[in-house]
Amino acid sequence: MTRSSISRRTVLQTASGLLVAGGLAPALAFQNEPREEIEKDLIFRSVKPRNGEPELAKLVKSWQTPTELFYVRSHAPNPVIDPRQFKLRVEGMVRRPRTFSFDEIKQMPTVSTTATLTCAGNRRSEYNGPEYQDVPSVSGVQWEGGTIGNATWAGTLLASVLKQVEVTEGAKHIWFEGLDQIPKKGSVIGFGGSIPIEKAMVAEGPGAPLLSHTMNGAQLTPDHGYPLRMVVPGYIGARSVKWLGKIVVSDRPSPNHYVATAYKIVKKTSPLDWSESGPIYRFPINAAICTPSAGSTLNAGSVNLSGYALPSGRNGSSIKDLLVSADDGKTWTRGEMIGKKQDFCWQLWNAQIKVNANTKEILLRATDSTGDFMPARIPWNAKGYLRNSWYRLPVTVK
Ligand SMILES: Nc1nc2c(c(=O)[nH]1)N[C@H]1C(S)=C(S)[C@@H](COP(=O)(O)O)O[C@H]1N2
Ligand SMILES: [Mo]
User: Fold this and answer.
1) In this structure, which ligand is nearest to the CA of 74?
2) Distance, CA 72 to ligand 1 centroid (Å)?
3) Is the distance from the beta carbon of residue 178 to the nearest atom of ligand 1 less than 6 Å?
4) What are the Cα distances from residue 356, in Å, to 295, 325, 350, 383?
5) pTM, whole model, 2 decimals?
6) Res 102: pLDDT
7) Residue pair 181/79 in contact by the 8 Å Cβ criterion
8) What structural domains does the chain harbor?
9) What pLDDT, on the 0 to 100 scale, is given for residue 7?
10) Measured from the CB, is residue 155 less than 6 Å from ligand 1?
11) Is any atom of ligand 1 closer than 6 Å to the C-beta of 167?
12) Which ligand is in closest contact with the Cα of 216?
């Protein structure tokens, strides 16, 4: 058994062991959230703040992810926001800075889109696997492949809000700020995001960023940003700022920690130099095997596999080829895309493969229509982002 498969299972057991020990849960749960959600649907890597991902076998059951199975990634406890008091401030390089009430936002025309969100830290735990013995271990939430979900969002176009405030010439970036309170280096900050103005101004089609108040047909839950969050299709989840409280129009990317420092690919560590690269915006291609589960014992012969594949977040990108191997990459079998295919959304797939007693791992790789591909190996980076090398599922075959 590989080191990564052991550590993966240990993490999972710790998380579920903690949650099953019922006595602990009430003290750790936050006021405005139902306990059932913690126990039934997500594996919580931490509950304060709330960071949970679904079991992959549950996640792959539907193209549209039910809200209970949608991963939660938060840097601080959910802020409690009264929608009647809620104010969204829009300022910066605009002719008419303005404060919107929640009702004013809701009264603007509502647009609906289905889009996949994925955390830049999806599959991070694999960076601490056996390939990376000679580099520092990667800290941060030890996610497996479940920090991804595909939901239908409804709300107001960011482009409409920007039109109302009249953006001035020279504006290049739009900053978002959350109303959460995150302790950072002796002060308290809101989670910040930032996107280039070209993306912010997209006003048509599935790639248009939304100020979303509705998820899968219901009001946003506290975990997912109630009452209002950004949804930026095609971009890493971190740009979809939850509990949105402020939008700033600027000529540069946001100086907020989560744009200027975190969510960057940084490879040098001594000293760590955050200016080595720019903020991550679009997500790259990624895919995972969701069934059978990691560590399963299989009978020799034919096995059915299922999973998700996310094409890169470019316009019109879709999965071109998806291949699986049970002999360490000597031979590959093509998987079949099933169900819906929509821009900025994942695709689900099935494959059948023959395994025998020599099979220790099942490998998965994919390419998309824009030329993006999953590499065999991926270099280590300090924060463990964008893990999208071939997915390796450890199995035992009888
Ligand atoms: N205000 C705020 N927005 C946030 C975050 C946060 O901690 N605070 N986390 C970000 C990250 S890293 C991700 S991946 C997505 C997760 O969205 P979800 O919890 O609805 O799945 O929200 C983003 N928006
Ligand atoms: Mo994230």
Assistant:
1) 1
2) 7
3) yes
4) 15, 12, 20, 37
5) 0.90
6) 98
7) yes
8) 3-276 (3.90.420.10), 286-397 (2.60.40.650)
9) 36
10) no
11) no
12) 1
